[in-house]
Amino acid sequence: MEPTRSEGVFREGRTLFTINANPGTRVYGETLRTVGGVEYREWDPFRSKLAAWLARGPPAELPGGVRSVLYLGGAHGTTVSHLSDLWPHAEIFVVEKSPTAFAPLLALARHRANLYPLLADAQLPERYRADVGSVDFLYQDVAQRTQAQIFAENAHVSLRPGGAGLLMLKIRSVTQRGPPGAIVRAARELLAREGLAIRSETSLAPFSREHVALGVRA
């Protein structure tokens, strides 16, 4: 098991892993591997867009020294659980607006002390601003037409100066029409107007079709 350039992420061949913060327990049916007395969880890039981004290779690299995270669109907790593994000492605030998805997310947090689920709408960051405070890393994976604007508003509210962000842009959630390249350009331009520096643009194919990861810096 070899460490990667991203803190807490390991690789064996082409497969990604994180150290299981809750040994013996699977979150979504993933494979568990024990090497040298340490239990690792396989991180499936077909189930997690963050894993897909990392699997695509450079310039995909998570920031180091992260102590606080705001995660928008936690769903059932697949990717959230791996963030909990790789940043065990970070406070990870997870926003999810669906009560159906929130229930398993809350159950996951009972076994992972660094997760703080928030039943809230990512379009209204002022409602959880006091709970979250200033964070080092902002991650978003929501299927909304105004994805880029939601990301920018949350960055203004919670991302510290110099902090990093990653927007998983779902192209066909923005619009069913228009060329993907134009939709991505429009998102980039909006983020730039909002004062966010675009550091990278990565297609997530073949793991997720018509998804692009935009890496930013506040």
Short description:
This protein has helices spanning 49-55, 78-86, 99-109, 129-132, 147-158, 171-174, 180-193, and strands at residues 2-3, 9-12, 15-19, 32-35, 38-43, 68-72, 91-96, 115-119, 135-140, 159-170, 197-203, 211-217. It is an alpha/beta fold and 218 residues long. It is globular.
Task: Explain what the structure shows.
With 218 residues, the protein is an alpha/beta fold. It has one domain (45-217): Vaccinia Virus protein VP39 (Rossmann fold, 3-Layer(aba) Sandwich), CATH 3.40.50.150. The chain contains 7 helices and 12 strands. The chain has helices at residues 49-55, 78-86, 99-109, 129-132, 147-158, 171-174, 180-193; strands at residues 2-3, 9-12, 15-19, 32-35, 38-43, 68-72, 91-96, 115-119, 135-140, 159-170, 197-203, 211-217. The chain has a 7-stranded mixed β-sheet, sandwiched between helices. Strands 1-2-3-5-4 form a 5-stranded antiparallel β-sheet, covered by helices on one side. β1 and β2 (9-12) form a beta hairpin. α5 (147-158) packs parallel to α7 (180-193). The termini are far apart.
**Class by alpha and beta content:** alpha/beta
Q: Count up the helices.
A: 7
Domain module count: 1
Point out poorly predicted stretches.
none
Q: Which superfamily, in CATH terms, is the homologous superfamily?
A: Vaccinia Virus protein VP39
User: How far apart are the termini?
Assistant: 33 Å
Largest sheet: 7 strands, mixed
* Main sheet: strand order: 8-7-6-9-10-12-11
CATH architectural group: 3-Layer(aba) Sandwich
Q: What is the fold-level CATH name, i.e. the topology?
A: Rossmann fold
Beta-strand percentage? 25-35%
Give me the Rg, rounded: 16 Å
